[in-house]
Amino acid sequence: MSAITRRNNVHILGSGQQTLLFVNGFGCDQTIWRYITPALSGQFRLILFDHVGAGLSDLAAYDPAKYDSLEGYAGDVLDICRELELRDVTLVGHSVGAMIGMLAAIREPTWFQQLLLLCPSPCYVNEANYHGGFEHQDIHDMLAFMDQDFVGWADEFAPFIMGNPDHPALSAELLHSFCQNDPAIAKRFARVTFLSDNRADVGRCHTPCLLVQCAHDLVAPLEVGAFLHDHLPTARLITLPVSGHCPHLSAPVATLDALEAFMAAYAAPCRG
């Protein structure tokens, strides 16, 4: 195992000529994809990893200066592509992982053939002509709560993110994932996540994109999807008729259908 694969706890599953690289959202490790990976592993080669500070990553590899912006995490994605000598990667990113993946594709687009982005958001804060979902004070209050009581924050925020009160087991699963993080690193990552503003970067992405949003998502509302669709020259937008911010957990079949349909449509002209 190399230093990079050990750092990010990289695992390779499945078989197939096409590679899918999964980039987790905030507070999640690679197990968060387990509801959709079995259906994909027979056809694709799957690359899963943990951000430094989450899951079974190497905590000693955490560098506060490097990870002070999403660009540091995007660098890790590119490191993995180089280390594994990947080609024509289909990147599947969730939430902030979607933006990390987009930044990686902007920086070194030759690695990627398409981006499949679940509930992405380039900015979570409301501005004069932009609705990101949160007021500035909401973000600062949330970060202060996290600093004071990380477990209490996770207990309260997991149901908010999951958005499916009729299925408490999903919130419990997300809560468990949050609590597997190193709290000190998670607090810094949360600050980077929720205070980042990558709206100016979006138009620089020229990799074909699928944007998958949920009809009722408090973290990445419909206005965010509309903004991304307007500013991404190569994007297709799909709105799933579901609630919450984690459709790969709460609606895995619908999520899989959207991902596979886009990949099939993209592959068809290539075969021709």
Automatic annotation (TrEMBL):
GO molecular function: hydrolase activity
Domain AB hydrolase-1: 20-257
Stored InterPro entries: AB_hydrolase_1 (IPR000073), AB_hydrolase_fold (IPR029058)
UniProt entry tagged with the keyword Hydrolase: yes
Top-level lineage group: Bacteria
A Pfam family it matches: Abhydrolase_6
Keywords for this protein: Hydrolase
PANTHER family on file: ESTERASE-RELATED
Family to which the UniProt record says this protein belongs: Belongs to the AB hydrolase superfamily.
Name of this chain's protein: Alpha/beta hydrolase
